[in-house]
Structure formats: structure tokens, C-alpha cells
Amino acid sequence: MKFEGYKTGEHPELNAVVDLLVNEHSKPRRKRSQFVYAMRNVIINLWQADQVDEPLEIGLWKKRYKPHRWFSHSHVTSIVNFLIANEYVTKKRGYQAHEKNGERVGASLTKLYVEPRLRALFERMYNLEVGYDYALAPYIFLKDASGDFLKPPITVKRHQMEARARSINEALRLHIYTLPSPPTTHLGSAPLIDKELRFCFFLRRIFSRGRTALTHGGRFYSRSLNAAPHPQGMPKDLRQTIRIDAQPTVELDFGGLHIRMLYALNSIQFDEDPYAKIDAPRGDAKLMLLMAINAKDRLSALRAFRLETKRWEPELYDAIVAAHAPIGKCIGSDWGIRLQRLDSEIAERVLMHFTSRHKACIPIHDSFIVKEEDADELRQIMEVEYSNVMHGFTCPIK
Questions:
Q1: Tell me: the pLDDT tens digits for 193-244?
Q2: What distance in Å separates the CA atoms of residue 19 and residue 209, rounded to the nearest whole number?
Q3: 18, 163, 201, 389: which one has the fewest Cβ atoms less than 10 Å from its Cβ?
Q4: Distance CA 40, CA 16 (A)
Q5: CB-based contact 57:111 (threshold 8 Å)
Q6: pLDDT at 173 over 80
Q7: pLDDT (tens digit, 9 = 90+) per residue, 96-110?
Q8: Which one is predicted more confidently, 368 or 213?
Q9: What is the pLDDT of residues 342-353, one digit of tens each?
């Protein structure tokens, strides 16, 4: 389970456990309230990880640490080192793989395992209710080109985005989201409602490339608040079983979104199947086209495709460029991150529409999940907002 710095907990013994550990910590601190808040967050995260018998994964490398509004990187490292030194937890070094410029790279994580000494304190916190600090938590994040977190700019535009994202999250938390719960699934401490698994999540927007004008990326990303998976971490067949307030749901998505956006930006209405024009198996054509749009150059696209399929296909890349000659200059030119900024604008407008109507709408980047009874409304607002953002052009919805 990954560390999340804005978790909150309600239990009469939680404050007592936190005070005990803070007082045992030998390092004096002027800003005690910040240190107590940090200790509280670390303990809540450790308690929740221990309930599902998993280590707590936390990145202690300063460049990978997400800026927090209330406590600093030094607070967390001091607390972790204290817990390790006093045998409350043990540490193992982990590894997290991710893609960077079409290649798979990794970053070290610290895995913390709860020891019996700390588990004995957790016994006093039976049935701790874990929540999220919606009022304090930020919803706008900025990363540089290497994926390290930066401090977002203090601008009117950013604060307006933050306010809209907060209102979306506050509206989403008023609904109950459940999944069927197979008996063989390890559920840990995830809450059950009538033999269904309840999942809790929140949304945040992540902008990229260190552009303080917030012109790159900006998509909404979901993150889990309990042991259950979050929507964007579920395979499509599992997402089809999601229920909102005990009602069945439907997922609608834009067809060939980014390729049609590129045509629209070149003042062309593209209504054909973007993959049928390519003389190659549909799966390969779709994968290479998506990678080529997101790649910085031809070589990066070929490397990303080889990483996924173990095949080197320069002829397929050239066939894609030839099939989409009107936008050939945009393929392999790092347009994907800029198109994400546009599709995130569409997503925000769709989400704000449902927020204003007190209805739940879950974004999955270029698709949305709503109750079945709201499907027609979703289709209509997706069509309208795509046209508004793309200056009158249209995109099929399936």
C-alpha cells in the first residue's frame, strides 16, 4: 500500500497512540503541531497497510517526495528513522518500475513492515475509520520532465482549477461505490456492504514537464483510500460491474480521441476508422499509433512498441505516417502530452456538469462511468463539451 499524506482517522485511542510516539521521539521541535500531524498520517497509513497484511511503500528520496501543505520531507524521514530505530517497524528496500521516454526505468521505495511492538498499540485502535482531508489536500500537482514533483505555481488559474477539483471530489464522496465480492478475493480491511466490496477514492490532476503555465498533461487520476482498487486501476471487465448507490452503471468513451483531435487541430473533420486505413493487424496498428502520438520521435515510438510486443516494426510506423499523411508532422512529435491537456479540459467540464446536478461521474481519462439512468445525459454532455473545446468538430462516442 502506498503512503498518502492526507489521510485522516477517527478513533478515541488514535490521539493517545500518536502522543505516546511523539513524546518518545527525542528530537525537540519548535513547530510541534506540524510534527504531530505528520506522525498521525504515518501511523494511519501504517495501520491501514497492516490491516491488509501489506508493507507501506513510501518514497523517501527527496526529489520523489510530493510537497505537502502541512509537513515536510524532513518530518517524514525523521519519523520513519525513529520507528525503525525503536523496532516499531522494519525496513526493506523496494523498487517501482515506470516508463520514461518510452523506456522502463525504476525508482527506489522504502517498504515498512509493522513489528509486534507497534501492532500492540494498533490493538487499541480497533475499527479505526480512515478518511481523507478534502479541505486541506491539494488536487493540482506538477511534475518536471523526469517525473519529480514540483511546487505548482501560485496563480489565479491554478487556484480556480483547485477549487473546481475540490468541488468534484466533495460531490463524489457523497455516493457509495461497490463491486461484486468473489469469495476467493483477498479483501483485507476493505469494507463490505451486503457481500459487496466498497471502494473509496479521490481524484487529482497531474500536470507535466514542469510547465508552470500548466499547458501539458493535467489529466484526472484516481487514487484509492482503502484496500480496494481504485477505478483507473481496474481492468475494463471489472469496471463494468461497478455499482453506484447500488445501481448498475455504464461506461461511455470517445472513439479514437487523440487521433481525431489532431485532425481537428489541423481543421479536418475525421469520421473514418483511424485503424482501418493501416495495412496491419488492428491490434498492432492501434498500439503503434497511440505510442507514436505520445512519443517524442520515431525512435522512441519504436522502442516503446518493442518493449510491449518484443518486436521491432519500423515498417508499421512508416505505414501509420503514410496512412495519416494530413497529420504526419504531428506523429512522433510529442503531441500526446499536449492532447492530454485538451482531453482533461473536456473531462473537467463533464465532471463539473454532473457535480452541479449532484450526480456521480467517474473519469477514466477518455471515458466516463455513470449510472445507467444517466447514460443519455452523459452522451449528450460529452458531445457538447468535445465540440466546445475542439471548436465545433465532433468525435464518435461508443
A1: 445 788 888 999 999 988 777 889 999 999 887 767 889 989 988 899 999 9
A2: 41
A3: 163
A4: 10
A5: yes
A6: yes
A7: 544 444 444 455 678
A8: 368
A9: 999 999 999 999
Single-letter amino acid, residue 327:
I
Ranges of each domain in the chain? 1-137, 141-274+324-398
Contact in structure between 378 and 350 (CB atoms under 8 Å): yes
Gap between the Cα atoms of 55 and 361, Å rounded:
32
For residues 125 and 3, is the Cβ–Cβ distance under 8 A?
no
In the block, cell 480491511 appears at 189
Q: How far is CA 376 from CA 140, 254, 372, 384, 395, in A?
A: 30, 14, 8, 12, 16
